[in-house]
Amino acid sequence: MTDQSSPTAPTAALPVPADFVHRAGVALVTGGTGGLGRVIARELARRGSAVAITYRSDADAARQVLDELPPVASGTHSAHHLDLTDAEATAALVAQLTGRGPLHTVVHAAGPHVPMRHLSTVRPEQFATQVANDTTAFFTLVSACLPALRQSRGNVVAITTAATTRYPARDGLSAAPKAALEALVRAFANEEGRFGIRFNCVGPGMLTDGMAERLISSGDLDERALAVARSSTPLRRFGSALDIAEAACFLASDRAGFISGQKLDVDGGFGV
Question: What percent of the chain has pLDDT over 90?
Answer without folding.
Answer: 81
